[in-house]
MYND-type domain-containing protein
Amino acid sequence: MLHDDAVVSVPDAAYGYTMIFHLLSLDSQEPSNFADILDAVGGSQNRLASALNQYIVRTCTALPSEMAMKSLAHTINFLAETYEARETFRSILLAEGIVSSIVLTLGSALSAGFLRHIISFSVSPWAADKEISSLLDVLILGHLLQGLASYKVVIQMKISLSEVEEASASLQFQQSACFEYWRSFAALASSRIEMLCLWHSAGCPAFLACDNMKCGVINQRNEFRRCSGCRHAAYCSRECQIIDWQDGHRVECSEMRSVLQSRTLPWRERAFISAFFRFDYADLRFKIARDTITLLQKHPGKPICAVFNYSEPGALVCAVHLKDDFDALPAQRRPIEWATQWGRLVRSGGRMEMNLLAFTPSFMIFTTRSTTSKFHEGLRRIARDLPPDTNPSQSEKVNTCIRHLIQAMGDDAELKEIY
């Protein structure tokens, strides 16, 4: 039986690495295979989560590069399969900090020449092997693209991409099977690096809004004070804290403390995600408004949220959904602060919007706030005044009304993301 200490032992413990590598390459959705994997680490899902956490951190530094590349790809596949199929194990993985470990691993791998290895593999005889070719696709699509949501990864990616600029431009690599995936990755990486530079030049701004939903003050995060109980809710004044305590935070405080403890990303990582989300939100603002009108026309009075799908390659996909769609999901699939944030949205009187950012392996909530509810009220008015047989997505009148609303609002139409 292979226990945790064998999984994370020194590089010359070849048997331990070979066994884990073999187990992770099995189809984990087959119950007998998953049972074998559990048995190999002592029979406990907690032991497996801990072993995987340590294994992925050490993979790129403790193994020869060929084995490390294949091991990392198999591990990503395994995590994706088990995350979707096994809700209990998903909760255990998150509690073990698997997300932070993957980010840390990728940052270390980039420093060790991960991009160079991918290009070398793509043009080597290994790439003719279908398994190797599919693993390369997993590494690019399943790991590199997802990693571009991390501040630390993008910092290192800026250096790593410049180091492989010549190799990635070679004709041999451009004719390889994985080059199309690489091109998608490189385009997104360049975009995130550009956004990172802009964010740095602006002083890495991070906004908060007063959590007294009757207030509406929005400012830099250092202008607010946190609740001493949950360390999460923020207020611009003592008076606003008292009002919010009476309006609902008295009940929410302990839940919000759990939210803060469950977050595996430090504030700078969340602020960076918030920053590139703001750019994407601005590009899609008109579409979000039109899709919101479409839903409001069919379901007046129903709460709505926008979902930004960052888990797939290519152009960012954004869709507007009813809150009911997500209420129907198992609780493990929803962010832990789901109920609390919806309570705040109701109390905001139209100054707050709910956004779900879909990453692998989970959703993250980012709210957008405005100092006024006029934009929200304008969208509801447009939806209410439409003839029943009008399709808002095909109506030039609706498009014109949205443009006029945005123009009339001026700076008030801008909603700031609150990380």
